Amino acid sequence: MAIAQMAKIIIVSHRTQASELLEALQQEGICHILNPEETTVGRDFPELAGPAERPRDIEGLLTRLEKSISFLKGYAPAQKGLTAALAPRTVVDKQSYDQVVSDRQALRIADQCEQIETSIEKTNGEIEHIEDMLEILAPWASLETRVEEIGPLKQTMCWAGLISSQQLEQTQERLSELGAAMQQVGATSNRSACLVVSLTENTDKVQKLLRSAEFEHVNFEPMRGIVTELISEHRKKLLQAKGRLQSCTEQASELSENLLNTEILHDHYENLLNREQAKDAAPATEHTVLLEGWVKDRDFARLEKIVLSFKASSLHKIEPAEDEDIPVEIENTGAIKPFEVITRLYGMPKHFEVDPTVFLAPFFALFFGLCLTDAGYGLVIIALMIFLIKKMQGDKKLMWMLGICSGATVLAGALTGGWFGDAVQQFIPALGTAREKLMWFDPLEKPMIFFGLSLGLGYFQIMTGLAIAFIHNLKQKQYVAAICDQLTWLIMINSIVLFLASKFNAVSVEVGQFFGNLALIPAVTILLFSQREGGWGGRIGMGVYNLFSTIFFMGDVLSYLRLMALGMVTAGLAMAINIIAKIAGEIPYGIGIVVMVLVLVGGHGFNIAINALGAFVHTLRLQYVEFFPKFIVGGGKSFEPLSKEYKHIYIKKEV
Questions:
Q1: Where are the domains of the chain?
Q2: Residue-wise pLDDT tens digits, 532-563
Q3: What is the β-pairing status of strands 2-3 and 330-331?
Q4: pTM attached to this predicted model
Q5: Is-contact 182 158, C-beta < 8 A?
Q6: Cβ neighbours around 319 below 10 Å, total
Q7: CATH tag for 136-234 (out of 3.50.50.60, 3.30.70.2750, 3.40.109.30, 2.30.22.10)
Q8: Which of 168, 266, 297, 379 would you call most buried, defined as having the most Cβ atoms within 10 angstroms of its Cβ?
């Protein structure tokens, strides 16, 4: 339960074996390959780190496969239900995976998808064009003149167009004044289809008038014939186009049966791309590729076995540079491991720091439980987490962690008498005796116990953080830092607390006086040595500031009162829900029972959701803001070994 020890390595491989070696490393997933700019070889021998060649053929193939997957999903039967949402990736056994990858014909799916998609797009465009033409022709259905005859004649000019129905009469009158005529042929919802005829010498005046009336000209080119015949012809074309579209859709539906194979190919080539990018980016000579990276000490023997299985490859341990940023991996087991979620969310510690997971786990679970303080709510969340763990794919650490925290919630709820608020007293008074036997105190009747418990736990966690830093500095042989930065504060703060306790008769006056005098020693040490760089004027100035910072510790402890606040809010809201439900139950004719159940289920469901979220967020804040800064800085680089990743499928593990 600590930060894994790392070994820096360099692998030298002949170019002919580099791809196969990287595939073996990716399959094992134990070696972190450095980027060229991070490698020692790349810095010392920049001529070896030439421009990386992009594997454009693989990138192009991946783009085609992504488009094919998107296309096929539109025609494949949609997965529905909660199970599909929790497990979106298809489970595939290794044998089926290998069979698809090795099938040379499998890539033809992308070609077929592209052909069908092109046909569908073309046919849709054709259908849209025909429908537009039918929409244009519809108002002219009663026109008996052939459309190609509409236009200029020897002495007259004819126009076809649409005009607003509101302006029709006025425009007809104004045209008659110019010796022109307008004849309505048909109409749309708010516009009239009209023919306008004018003498050739009045063309300019008529066109000016039509523009002012917002007359929209209709051009029938290149159509020929009577409108009714054209409409009939276009309707036939529309039916034919829709038939072709239906055929293409059926082909796409049949091809969608290959969606899984396409997803397998995509994930396979995605992993291949990662390997090729690593190889192409690595420093290299004419005949060799140099892979520099990190491996856990305990995995070095496995890595060595893999590398030595390639005759033209070798593995060597090398010393890291003094200022090198060593990647960090935290390793925990049992009930502690799920709480790695919290550490990773905060950011990895530096390689020389402490893994905070083992220390935060009990505090996080306990604080979460105190924020809810309801055994019934804890049982509901446990049941939900069990369901999600069984149904969800991928990493389930968060679910396990919330399940453990909910166990602490059940304990906290039992000790404070919270079972869906006061549901026992309101609805099942027969269980009141059992509830009271399990109770330690009722927060609503004795809130000061909860108040003191919250402050006490906060004080204990802060002292724990200082103690962790003190012990870690001792192990690192940083004795001055351990004494001046942690031990002084541990002694001074605890001495002040005991001195104040004597004022409230919690301890004897003599004990309080002794610790009051004892607090002066670490106070002087902090004043003189908490800042150990620069001149004495600056050092003492920072020492005064650091002594004043004692008040910040009080603020840190008071922050833990949020445990009591959230616990009381959860209980109060649960009680209000029970009261409303009980009142609703008095509605006659059996309606009350239904309303009561709805209020109880909906109300407590909402209370669980909103307060579980609040419990998680505020407990998280206490760890990040009050606890972690006492002993870690963070900002470490995560250990990210080259490994196979799957976006669309889930490889079934062989038993």
A1: 136-234, 334-444+560-630, 478-558
A2: 777 787 778 887 887 887 888 888 999 999 99
A3: antiparallel
A4: 0.84
A5: no
A6: 8
A7: 3.30.70.2750
A8: 266
